[in-house]
Amino acid sequence: MSTPTNGLQALSAEATQLLRTLDAELESWGNQAGAASLIMPPLLPVEALARLDFYENFPHQALVVAPLDLARREPGARPACFRPQALDSATLALPSAACFAVYLHHERQTLPGDTAVTVLGRCFRRENHYEDLRRLIGFHMREIVALGSAEYTRQHLDRFGDRIERFAAALGLPLRKQAATDPFYDRNGQRALLQKLSPVKHEYVAGDLAIASLNVHRNFFGERCRITHAGTGEPVFTSCVAFGLERWLSVLLGRFGSYRAAAAALRDATDALRDLAGERR
Question: Is 220 part of any domain?
Answer without folding.
Answer: yes
